[in-house]
Amino acid sequence: MANNSVAYTGVKNAVKEANHGDFGVTLAELRSLMELRATDALHKIQECYGDVQGICTKLKTSPNEGKSIFMLLRLLLYTSDILPPEEESEAGWIEGAAILLSVVCVVLVTAFNDWSKEKQFRGLQSRIEQEQKFTVIRGGQVIQIPVADIIVGDIAQVKYGDLLPADGILIQGNDLKIDESSLTGESDHVKKSLDRDPMLLSGTHVMEGSGRMVVTAVGVNSQTGIIFTLLGAGGDEEEKEKEKEKKDKKRTPEWLNFISMEMQPLKSEDGVDGDEKDKKRANLPKKEKSVLQGKLTKLAVQIGKAGLLMSAITVIILVLYFVIDTFWVQKRPWLAECTPIYIQYFVKFFIIGVTVLVVAVPEGLPLAVTISLAYSVKKMMKDNNLVRHLDACETMGNATAICSDKTGTLTMNRMTVVQAYINEKHYKKIPEPEAIPEKIMGYLVTGISVNCAYTSKILPPEKEGGLPRHVGNKTECALLGLLLDLKRDYQDVRNEIPEEKLHKVYTFNSVRKSMSTVLKNSDGSFRIFSKGASEIVLKKCFKILSANGEPKVFRPRDRDDIVKTVIEPMASEGLRTICLAFRDFPAGEPEPEWDNENDIVTGLTCIAVVGIEDPVRPEVPDAIKKCQRAGITVRMVTGDNINTARAIALKCGILNPGEDFLCLEGKDFNRRIRNEKGEIEQERIDKIWPKLRVLARSSPTDKHTLVKGIIDSTVFDQRQVVAVTGDGTNDGPALKKADVGFAMGIAGTDVAKEASDIILTDDNFTSIVKAVMWGRNVYDSISKFLQFQLTVNVVAVIVAFTGACITQDSPLKAVQMLWVNLIMDTLASLALATEPPTEALLLRKPYGRNKPLISRTMMKNILGHAFYQLVVVFTLLFAGERIFDIDSGRNAPLHAPPSEHYTIVFNTFVMMQLFNEINARKIHGERNVFEGIFNNAIFCAIVLGTFVVQIIIVQFGGKPFSCSELSIEQWLWSVFLGMGTLLWGQLISTIPTSRLKFLKEAGHGTQKEEIPEEELAEDVEEIDHAERELRRGQILWFRGLNRIQTQMDVVNAFQSGSTIQGALRRQPSIASQHHDVTNISTPTHVVFSSTTASTTVGCECVFLKCMKLTFPDSHT
Known about the structure:
Residues 1033-1067 form the Plasma membrane calcium transporting P-type ATPase C-terminal domain. InterPro entries: ATP_Ca_trans_C, ATPase_P-typ_cation-transptr_C, ATPase_P-typ_cyto_dom_N, ATPase_P-typ_P_site, ATPase_P-typ_TM_dom_sf, ATPase_P-typ_transduc_dom_A_sf, ATPase_P-type_domA, HAD-like_sf. It is found in: Cell projection, Cilium, Flagellum membrane; Membrane. It is a single chain. By secondary structure, this protein is an alpha+beta fold. Helix content is 47%, strand content 13%.
């Protein structure tokens, strides 16, 4: 972030000092030009510059060669493509720096966790930004550079799927269509051409075609940058002041506004929607999908209610006991001079109540979630999973279905032509060049060279002895490789016919499943070359080249023969089949209407059919077996034909011989799921998807339909959790609809990556399996922490409550409770949430969305260990002075010094928690609690560190910690009783959970019937259970618990005996879990949504630390 700021400042200064006279055009002129559209822009270009060539000349760049290397030295003349970072507001440091050591520890550890988490996410964002590269031409070479290095005058190559990083003017285009909805709100794709609309704008998506543009504006001078400036990041002081005021209300980072701006269309001209319903919907908070967050929130509310009840009862009993004993039993009158003493007693009772409350409330829950997710995300990056949305990590643990692409994910994505049908012969191996007639060879070489995107090429290997590098589309690279195998050079043809000489290009897309290129010959005739899926292109072929290279009639019967004898055998071996064809348009005839594609790409002559092999990744079959063993169904959704798809599915293990599973083509799938009116019916989908394993020849719409059908299905009790992989622009809807969307980091387009939750940096299916492991590990880590936390909660609350009621004092003092709180909240969450995953996680079925957080086995462990600890603590409390032959600490005067008795109780209690932390590592009844303990260095360090600090507190803590020094013998007894929890744990694990019928599960998710009807009526995909819980009045006081402030007050009041007003002092702070829609008034009526809830923020906000003591059903 700092580097970016420096870079921006340097660029800004350079721009101020630059001599614009070196170029024929100024910055202001370019900015004003890029604000024009369509015909206005064309008129302006013609009037001021003549044509695009004129602009290139003034910018000292060449349409073909790009900028010269010399000119690159002038890079800082115009701005680099860096947007100014938003100044970050510094959070005010917590007041009360000189508080006791325990409170400082809580603050420092929490602050360190927050800092490391923030640093990690910044690093993640930085990595995503650095990995975004764009193709430009410099010095005659096509190179990829980071988008931040793009400068004005660069010649950039744009292609299908790109997110344009800068403004520019089209130099050459092939069937180029742009989605400008992010800037203009126009949902239809805008066709770009030199004669109609050559203006290309940053932040827009290339949906079809390819081309080249000259960059005219970058950074804050681009159209996106100008809007960003209006939002206040690079503007004047007045704008900054406005932003500062907004920040005080909304704490929204500006870069999130920018991202939201990229994704959201603008509103109507006046910036207001007429529809009240839309207004209401726009103001709804974003609905997150985190199931775990909802369960945790609900559980925390329940625990909070119990804690409030216990603390209230404690205070009431103490006050009543004191009043009755003093004024009723002892018959003492209320003396005015004794009032301060009575008040001190009441303050003491209140402190004890707050102590019970502080221990009961699990503030560590959000921290455990945060640490577990942050730790997992960091480690997943090493496993080639770049997590963009935190909740995806947790959701993956519940995945029940994976819909995977074939090419590049299950296979190696290194395409090679291995078979061919040429001159009426089926070659099982690539033939020698001499075996192919020269006439056919000419068609083949020209057709492949010009009808493959010029961005696809084969480069020499990076290392000697390595394989040639495939750049661009892998299928096209396989065809180019075929020419190299035939001793022909495609580059010679491309040099002779450069891209700008191509008369018309019908680029590949998922609808046409083919690509065609039109060439204009010197005699005025035209020739079109076409390639695509064999069964589709063959249907358009009326002729085929014979053995001597002459066209002959190609009848439907001949086509069926080729399908049966050539295409199906190739497909059964797992080969992708591509048909190559051409058509001539004689010179004498009128020029065809090129926009009428159906009339152009028909009546073709077949040149050849080739079979392309993409071998299965060697590690994939084993990974799929692991998925199936883990209860996850893997489905292949591919654009290949059904025979190829079936063959690959068999090799991968998705299909096994003798199993009753379905393999369908897209058209057959659509026929089965639609009724007579052509409408999709869920009942029909439900009959198909449970047995469907392969969906071939599918379109992105089919993939979206399948994913939606599985998610919406009610065939099984548990709602299916679906993960989807995608690489194309049109995969966006399916990636968005899925519970977890995986985009391909290598082959994926920018649009697919933007729609995804996780990016697979190696495009490998095994990385998805690792994501499942990490997701399940997050869930288990939270459960481990809960098992430990609730055991401490139960024991500490009962000890404090019972001790207070019987002895008029809590055996565990306020500061000691803070230390216990630190152990059981912050340190335990750090230790238990960083357990690494193991293969054993894949040996069980998914938990499912409705699985409670606390299973019956965990409940058995919690209650079993709580029983042991309570027996030990109460024995020491009421008989400890006799056992150790020391003075009793019970019924001590108000300001009595610390006693050995209560110090032993405190020390033993902490030792039991330390050893129980080891027990908590296992939640499924395993006996070996030490298994893999040394694989987690953090856990070992925290347990040992806590032990050392406990020694220091007991031996040297003195009065501040209410501790008295203990002898070696007393220490050994404390450690021995603590170790007893390990032995007790073995005894508990021998008791079958099935015998304990009275045990109940806890921590269920919010059930559908619990959700208010008005929320179900809203047109939202997911209900955010955490947010819904937070809206309830009963949680008000709990949500407002200001942990540190409370502890400061408790300690101060406890030590100084201050008035009750001091203990009640609170600093309310207001925060929001979600940022709603913001309307920003600008001259262009820009209206953006900045919904920025994330799982981490959401989890933290569940426990916003401001306390207001009120009854549970009160409202703010």
